[in-house]
Amino acid sequence: MWLFKVNILAFFLLFVGRYETFALQDVTADLFGAENYGTVAAFGDFHADKQTDIFIIRERSEVVILLADPKPPYFKPKLHITKDTFPKGTVITSVVPGDYDGDSQMDVLLTAQISSKSTTVFIFWGHNQTLDMSGWLALNKTFTDQPLIMDFNGDMVPDIFGVTDVPEVCYLTNRAPACRDALSPTIKLRVPHSNAFIDLNKDFAADLFLTTEGPKFETWINKDGNFTKVEIMPAEPPAVKTVGQSSFVDFDGDGYQDHLLPVCLDEGCQHSAIYLAKSGSKEWVSVLSDFQRKETLWSFVPGNPSQPLALHLGDYNLDGFPDALVVLRNTSGSILIPSDRSSNIISSIWRREMEGVLSGLCFNDCPEDVKLPYTVLGLGRSANFLDHLFVGIPRQSGETAIRKQEWTAIIPNSQLIVIPYPHNDPHRWSAKLYLTPSNSVLLTAIALIGVCVFILVIIGILHWQEKKADDREKRQEAHRFHFDAM
Prior knowledge:
- By secondary structure, this protein is of the alpha+beta class.
- 14% of the residues lie in helices and 33% in strands.
- It is built from three helices and 32 strands.
- The strands form ten sheets. Strands 19, 20, 21, 22 and 23 form a five-stranded antiparallel beta sheet that branches. Strands 1-2-3-4 form a four-stranded antiparallel beta sheet, with no helix packed on it.
- A hairpin with a 3-residue loop joins strand 12 and strand 13 (167-171).
C-alpha cells in the first residue's frame, strides 16, 4: 500500500512538474527581444494586416508602436514618437488609437499633462500605414480629466467628450476640430471619472453614463440621436466610506448591462464589498461582501487618482460567465503581502491575431480589406446553432428608426463579419460567415470514412452469410425426395 501511494505521488509530481514546465514559460524574449520595457498603453491593428500591434509609453514622454511580425521577436519597434515632438515637461498619460478624421486610416490620440494637472490632447494622423509627424494636431482645449472617446453624433467616427469649464464634445472629421457645448453646463465630473458609452436600455443605441462629484451618477439615454437625462439606475452610491470606479457587465444574462461598484466599508478599507444595480432599479444589492478565505481576510487596496479602485471584467476561465480581476491585500495579518502601490500589477490580455473585417464606413469601395471602424467580439463557445444575433449601431440626431438587423441560425465556432452599410438602411446590411478548416475536419473525415468502411464490411459479411444460406437451401431442395413424382 505504501509503495502504491509513493508511486502515485511520484507520478503526480512528475506530471505537475512537466505540466508547469510546458504551461508556464518565459516568452518575453521571443515576443519583444530587447524592447521589453515601458508601459503597455493600448492595442490596435495599425498596419491593417490582421495582427494586433502594441502601443508603448516609455519614460512617460515617448510612444513606441511595436508592430506584429511573423518572425521572432514577434513585436518589433517601427514607429517612434519622441519627446522632442512635444513641449518641454510633457507627461504622456494615455494612448487611444482610432480613426478620428474618417479616412479609414488609424490615427493615434495621446493625452498628456504639461506642467499642470489639466489634460491636453494630441492627435497624430495616420497616412499610408505610418504617421504624419509634421502635421500633428494639438487640441486647443484642456480637460479636467481624461476625455471619453465616443461616437457622440452617430456618424461612425469617434469624438472627444470631456469637461473644460463646461462639458464639451470635439469633432475631428476631415481634420478640422470643432468643439461644441454638450449635455448640461452644470455637470462636474468626478476625478478620476469612470464614464461609459454603453447601451443601458437595450435599444441598440449607446447611452452615456457619467460619474459626477459627490460622488453621484447620471444616465443620459440616446433618444432619436439626442442624449436625454433619465434616471434608470441609482443616482447615488450606497452608504459607504470609499466608492470605486463603475463597471458594467451583463451579470445575470438577461441582456441588460448591470452596474457593478467596488467599495470600502470603512476608512482604512479593512472591509470591502461589491454592489450591483440593475437597469430600471433604484436599489443597490451586495453581491460580494465575504472576502475571507480560511484564516485570511482580504480587502481592496484603497485607490488613488493615478490608480483608482476598479474591477477588470472578463471571462477569464472561459466558462461563459463574467469574472472580475482586482488587486487585493491581506488585512488579517496572518501572512505578509506588500500593499504599497509598487506591488500592484496591471495585466493585459490580448489576442495576437485578429480576423480582419471590412469598414463600417464603406463596402465595395474600401481601399483595403481591414479598415476602421471595426470591432472584434466573441460570442462564446456553443455546441448548438445561435438562434438569433442582433446587431445595432448609433443613430444620428433626429433619426427615430432604430438601426439594427437580425441574423438567425449562426453556425457555432465560425467567423461572422457584419458590414452595417449603408448606416440608415439596416435591411441592406450584409453578413459574411467564414469557417476555418482545422485538424478536426480531417479527423472527422477519417472517422466518417472509417464508419462507412465498417458498415460496408458488416453489410458484406451479412450478404455473404445470406448467400451461403441460400445455396445450402437450394442443395437441400435438390436432394429432397418428391413423393408426388411416384
